[in-house]
Amino acid sequence: MKTIQLGLICVALCLSTFSRANSVQVYAAASLGPALTDVIRHYQLQYPEAKIVPVFGASSTLAKHIVRGAKVDLYFPADQDWMTYLVKRNKVKASQVKPIIYNQLVAIALKDARIPFRAHPTFNFPQAFTGRLCTGQVDSVPVGKYAKHSLTKLGWYKRLEKRIIGASDARAALAFVERGACQVGIVYRSDAVSSDKVKVLGTFPVQTHPDILYTVALTKQGEKNRQAIKFGRYLGSAAAHKIFVQHGFRP
Question: Which residue of 24, 105, 139, 214 has the lowest C-beta tally within 10 Å?
């Protein structure tokens, strides 16, 4: 009986070790949610032995968790500032940072809203609507930082500043608009196309904000994880790229 019990314990430990060895923990920007979930689904159809575990949230919050010791294999933020933050703190090697895909910044409102929009300094957007504007927190959350850049470049920020609601991430900002808590939102195009409740009022020109480039990097832990290395390569593949584009991202 003892021999059988020891054998069962050994099998359980081996299976547990195998499971951990094939598990990949990914910290990704909230705006990647639907697209990355779809990418993971396609990947695991090809490689069923792999277990990809995504955690979505604000790029800033996720980066701070990594610095505090979170066990993560891949970091996939929505801007470069937070990737640089990890590189400077020796959590990610600069050589591991790889560009994956771009996004666009758009203004949104509920589908039945009648709000004019033109991304030009001569257009008085602050007077085009009377309610609040939701985006990410303008000093820390990537989508909010991009929004502040564009609003400032177009000469609108000072007149809108007191009406801006800073959400924890792009998906939260989208949800505020969907619920009617904010009349207008500034989010990524990928967020807007994922919703059947909002419409795009217009796109902010790329000249009004830094490039919205999503990069991915293996952490120090991830460099030792074969499955993480393999999945990281897949994220840069044509197959993954096609899925991202289908979800509103751009080449």
Answer: 139
